[in-house]
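REVIEWER CHECKLIST
Item 1: Sequence provided? yes
Item 2: Single chain? yes
Item 3: Sequence as submitted:
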Amino acid sequence: MTSQAICVVLAGLLLPSDLAGQERWTPPDSALLARARAILKDVPLIDSHNDLATSIFVAFKGDMSKIDLRQPQPKLSADVPRLRAGMVGAQFWSAWPSFDSVKTGGALRQALREIDLIHQFVDRTPDLAWAGTADDIERLWRQGKIASLIGLEGGEGIDNTLAALRLFHKLGVRYMTLTHWGTHDWADAATDFPRWHGLTEFGEQVVREMNRVGMLVDISHVSPETMRDALRVSEAPVIFSHSDALAINSHPRNVPDDVLALLPKNGGVVMVNFIASFVPRSGPAWALRRDSVAEQLHSELNDSAQIARRLEDWERRNPHPRGTVADVADHIDHIRKVAGIDHIGIGSDFYTDEPTAMSIGLEDPSTYPNLFAELLRRGYTEEDLKKISGMNLLRAMRGMERVAARRQALEKGGVPKSD
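Item 4: Structure as written out by the authors:
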């Protein structure tokens, strides 16, 4: 059977309701929501991925003089009022060099541009404060601040040099996603053709250097082979800064079960993602059907503008399934079953002002309590929720910090402290 035929067959399996956007979500009752909020007061809620810097470039061309994050900013992926409403205690702000920048040699420049913008908005916003360690996060949270750290989303941003990696750490980067959408010179991505079947020798050096300087190895976006290589090489716990379970949604960005099963030995954490493409079970089948429709249109028409209009019309009649809070909770259920409750966190991936890009009930940073209320409804304990909210990531960070301290002490000829 040809790939086109497979697409058509799979597309035909979709129920009309899957394509009609009929997903429904009932908000939690007030008692569950109050319980969730009470629990979140006792532990810092840590989100490991928000693309605010990129959204500022898109909406305001990076001009911070036009923005006060203390006021509602509906064009952006976050602002202080929504972070406070969502009870966020710490946020990793993403610095994203677009993969297209690799072709022009501009990835390092783009990474620096986004890191500089993050420094600008953190320094200008009294509610935000810089954190470099797990202890910093807890201290700042107790002071009523939103602890801020940086995640570099794409290893292409170091421009194949460990010197850049070390300097990024000094600038506040505390995790680096080894790839973004595309395979590059030393690691394969999940959404591109493999060149290396995992990490190259230099890629393994990158992981070891991240262990040494004190930077979490982030294996969201990478291929399963790269995931396995990183877990093999890294002495410190790794994270998936914004990923879900492949068994629930078969998008290649999500984590396969065999990799989830490796996390208890490593101590790593999967930070679950809220983006519509990665959450609902029906999402991949919808994408196959859309691709089949687009292929058919290209075979019938020569006018690209007409093809685009026809495809847009089809999407209006067959909206992309978004998933709901309940679907995100299904991913958490599955990760708990395979890896355990100690290996789950929150990595929303808020990146746009378009609410339909995210799962229903989790449209912006004000909505985190909805997810915790849903988990309570499913029988998760107060201790479970505290682990998912932030304690699991803090444990992983402290593990990473111990590895870095030990390696640096050995370099200096000292005696590393006992774990």
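Item 5: Key structural point noted by reviewer: The chain has 18 helices and nine strands.
Item 6: Recommendation: ____
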